[in-house]
Structure formats: structure tokens, C-alpha cells
Amino acid sequence: MKNTILKTIGMTALVILMLTVFTQISVLAQADTVNEEKTEQEDASARRENTRKLEGVWNISVTGRNCQTGAAIRTFFAMHTYMRGGTMSDFGTGTAPNLRSPGMGIWSYQSRGRYTTAFEFFRYNADGTFAGKQISRAQLQLSEDGNSYTTVSTAQVLDVNGNVIQNNCSTAAATRFE
Q: Using CA atoms, how far apart are residues 76 and 58, in angstroms rounded to an integer?
């Protein structure tokens, strides 16, 4: 009888000890999960805030460059609008309005003020017939104050069959339109 009571007390003590240990592990695991979720929420919040910094209308001075030497070829102006959700529009003055359409494209936040953009527009011959399109891709660096940016861009000029007939390079400096 004495052995049975001692075994019961020993088993009860062991169960209580194990419950205490597992409860602490569970609480610690939950604390880590809560901290991870909080960090992920903060990261998502910071990402949303940084993403929205580019949204708006921008005046741009574009310098066309020789892709091999980097030498400036010509400068022209453009205007970009970056919209929530990652879409954008482009209106450039590098080509006469009757020879090109407005550009439509996409943009995305990468990290620490860096964004990527890509847009395309249709090209037309002087007689109004379709000549192809141009696709431009850029790496954009937003300033610390969020009111200016610089880009390095490449563009492919395509004929009506989608063949690349020319490659263009450029840099740009932009200021927020307010």
C-alpha cells in the first residue's frame, strides 16, 4: 500500500513537472510566433509605405546615351504617372506625337528607394501606318526626401513583327510634380 501511494505521488509529481515544462515551451513558441508575425506586419507596413512613395506625377529630363560609350546624344522631356497597384503611364517628347502613342507600363518596389519600371508604346510611320513598338526598362533610385529620382534605362525598338531593330540607352533625372 505504501509503495502504491509513493508511486501515485511520484507519477503525479512527474505529470505536474512535465506539464510545467511543456507549458513553458508552448508559451515560448507562441511568443516567437507573435514576434515573427509582428515583424512580418512591420515589414509589410514599411514595404507599403515605401511602395507608395513613388506614386504620383513626375517631370523627367531624359538623356539618350550611346550604349557602348555612355556619351550623351540628346535630351528630351517626359512625364510619368505612377499609380497605386503598380501601373504607370508615360508621355514622352522624344518623338513627335503623331509618331508614337502614350506609354503604358508597370512598376515595383525593390528595396531602400529602388524600384523597377517597364513600359511600352506604339510607334507609327509618318503616313500613320503602324511601325512597331518600343519597350523601355529602368532601374529607379528615389531620393531620401522622396521628391526626386534618377534612372538608368534600356529600350528595345521593335518592328511590326516583333524583331529588335534598335537598342537605346538613357539616364534620367525626375522631380515630383506638385
A: 14
* End-to-end C-alpha distance for the chain, whole angstroms: 90
Q: What is the distance between the alpha carbons of residues 48 and 154, in angstroms, rounded to a whole number?
A: 27
**pLDDT range class, residue 2, cuts 50, 70, 90:** low
**Quick one: CA dihedral 147, 138, 131, 72, positive or negative?**
positive
Radius of gyration of the chain (CA): 30
Tell me how long the chain is: 178
Whether the CB-CB separation of 144 and 50 falls below 8 Å is answered with: no
Model pTM above 0.85: no
C-alpha–C-alpha distance, residues 59 and 62, integer Å: 10
